[in-house]
Amino acid sequence: MTISKEKMSAQHIWGVVRYFLVAIIVVFFSVPVVWTVLTSVKPDILIPKMPPSWWFRPTGEHYVSIFLEKHLGKALWNSFIIASVSTICSLAVGVPAAYAFSRFRIPGGENLAFYFLTSRMAPPISVILPLFLIFKTLHLIDTRVALIIAYMTFNFSFVIWMMRGFFNEIPKDLDESAMIEGCSRFGAFCKIVLPLTAPGIAASAVLCFIFSWNEFLFALILTNIEAKTLPVAAAGFITDRMVLWGKLCATSVVIYLPVMLFALLLRRYLVRGLTLGAIK
Fold this sequence. Notes:
Helices cover about 75% and strands about 0% of the residues. By secondary structure, the chain is an all-alpha fold.
């Protein structure tokens, strides 16, 4: 009985320590977000004040300014269109390719899959100049199409490697049983395999969307005015004379929200997708 109590006491202590460590981690990563949100609704006169003012009357002037004076709505729409379309295109190309790598014996398949993955290994700065020259020749500079193609080029290789792990977890017997029952290979893929890999597709979609939404270098070099995205618009508040902290933080909050909402809506699939062996 004494041993049992000692074990229970040790487990209780370890549980308290574990929750305490988790709380510290949550606070550590939440402080920058909370600080950004507070600064976005803080009057300009109080932002540089030291020590910081924690009690103040919130103001929405920074949000009104970035949308009415800085025309941030256009950059927001550009980011949404580019991130959404590039994610859909990456999934449309990467998911069938991952299925092919998983189900068929392709000569040099492993080397080919690794070749696709190398596009994620290359530093973006090393490929931005060739892409700029290509898009300039095609008259695609400062267009959404240029960014969609660029992001898709980097994302679809990630989708292939992510989804191939899911397809490998599904027995080939399911495909063969469906085809025996009269389904075509494409029908078995759409009706049987895809529903089973929905968590993987959701996880891949969230990660691709986040990459496209937050990407800065390509958007800075390949756009100017018409296709400017939110990260580039946010950088415009850092001037040679001063940093417009209120407007910069308000823009940062606008950048946060869609990704947070997207991740929350798909959180069930995202958690399952990242824990079902895809990373393995």
